[in-house]
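TA notes. Do not distribute before section.
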Amino acid sequence: MNAGVQRMVALAGSWFPLRPAMKVNGPGFPLASLYVGDLHPDVTEAMLYKKFSPAGPILSIRVCRDVVTHRSLGYAYINFQQPADAERVLDTMNFEMIKGQPIRIMWSHRDPGLRKSGVGNIFIKNLEESIDNKALYDTFSTFGNILSCKVMSDDHGSQGFGFVHFETLEAAQKAISTMNGMLLNDRKVFVDHFKSRRKREAELGARAVEFTNIYVKNLQVDVDEQDLEELFSHFGKILSLKVMRDNSGHSRGFGFVNFEKHEEAQKAVMDMNGKEVQGRRLYVGRAQKRVERQQELRRRFQQMKQERLKHYQGVNLYVKNLDDSIDNEKLRKEFSPYGAITSAKVMTEGGHSKGFGFVCFSSPEEATKAVTEMNGYVLGTKPLYVALAQRKEERKAILSNRFMQQRLLRCLQLPTSYFLSQPPAQAVYYSSGPPAQPALRWMTTQPLRSSFNVGTQNTGPSGARRCAPGRPLLTQRYTSGMLSTHEIRLA
């Protein structure tokens, strides 16, 4: 990194000098704009500039960050001046290592319709653990131009499946017809068109209506396949059955029975579920895949959560700034004059109070009265803070909104004297320069006049804008959601 870049980084902190991105017409996306994903959390704009600037002139670099914490979200956008430079980076630098982590480069798609449509997107599962993004890309690139390629992974490594998004539907169909059922690193892979979660759930629901395979659990350990067949054979023709066993051959207490017809399986579930066999009450139901079971459990959990929230809506109070001497009984006693309390709990850790707790009343009117009377009341040696309890998501949204409003107000209320009171220093100027080689230059600034207005441009002999002493010209832009972009424009 040259001295000019180091100086800019020192002045700007985590921000990097950017120039307005060039709009390049192309089939659905700017041809000179690249998306760089799978970034290490510590990767900055300066690191990316040092990595990619040898490929050609760069117009702008932005690492996307959380709007509150300003931590990297793991991806960035790089705009090159020439489309040929961006294409060369995509072909030669994809999956290279930055801070010990392989990066993933693809064209930047400004229109989300292409991604959400699923056209040309295929799903590959049963991948061997050694197959990474690069190996998957090299394997499927022979079938057509790839827009995106990713093997899903967690902290333990590959999860055994991934996605490849082709530019055309024809390339995706060719890849499916060629690779489905083929051996990839001695493991047969399954390749098919990508289906959204909603579509998969609809298909699972349709298959569930006409099930023939049933699941039987809570079996005695001495029950084998012959005993299982005797229990269920009178319901209809059995195509297959199995008692599941561990590595030592002992029964795991459950098994499966597959009937020829749906009516036979349904009758077996209705008659045998809950029936006592050898002193144990059996559970008999439709056999489900892991995905179905997880979806059902998730649905039940969400339903219970909604019911619990509805039950405590407007009656559960959050009490903080509690004295260390306050326990559950004292908390209940202090709030009991305002109504019937269903629960009162002081949150503890290691047997010591964490300084807050919850009090739940039987009606919203009682809870409202308790908030009015007890908020600010001195209990022990501390004044209480009492309010209606909120979910974590609600608190986070309120705090984020409050933070943004306060920050905006501070920016609007800063007087001109604030900028003029900064210690004198030199500001950095990023010139347009020749197209083939952007130049970094120094520009000595002069004190601004007292009639300085925010948003005006002071131009010198060269026509360039001048910054206030010691401060580069800052522009901050906020986007909706959880992303924020920060730019220093020195042009």
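Switch to the second chain here.
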Amino acid sequence: MALQALQSSGVAFRRILSHFPEDLSLAFAYGSGVYRQAGPSSNQKLIKYGVISTSILIEDLLNWNNLYIAGRLQKPVKIIAMNENVLLRSALDKNLKSAVTAAFLMLPESFSEEDLFIEIAGLSYSGDFRMVVGEDKTKVLNIVKPNIAHFRELYGSILQENPQVVYKIQQGRLEIDKSPEGQFTQLMTLPKTLQQQINRIMDPPGRNRDVEETFLQLAHDPDCGDVVRLGLSAIVRPSSLRQSIKGIFTAGMKKSLIYSSRKLHKMWKGWLRKTS
């Protein structure tokens, strides 16, 4: 279960959870009420929540079937409740490692921590039509900049243990292996659905090459990162459309229109700040 909280306290979270079954696998909260974001904050006492099955959650964390919940859990969240589910804990860890790998493929040989965290935070927005209409264009930057320490806490140990990266913690810089061999290793460890989308992009109809053959070619391609980004967009685009349609039916047309108008207003204000 995910709670998007605006200006809410831990007590409020626990009060909300009291209305749900006690055997929740995982409950977490996110949004500007949990972690500070740059730009306007909201004073509204509003909470959106969603509920999914544990099996669907684990599937998305491991395979990135739609990158909706997996994408949210690639960013700092506040865990409200979590049971001792070994499969879930392993899937949560794998999702973070996959996010790092995908980001590596889209970054140059040397980059800053902030560059990495911006790339990671943007994975689940690749191809999201709401980033064209309805979302502030600086959304990803606003998530990352005030929360570098939280991202570092989330990914620090993964980066230190990764043999393909030199992590200069004091300087906040990283260097990765961009050789064809290094990129091939990274491509082969990407989540299954992203691998499939990349293979479809690289393998025209009728050729039917296997994934390994495709990735050997892609690993030598200077546009490898762009292809990975296209693969991410192919996952996120239909998922974001489905979620928006679901929102209309679950929240109702009136609430959806009000919510959308606020998003457009926020996007407009962000554009004015940028051009002023």
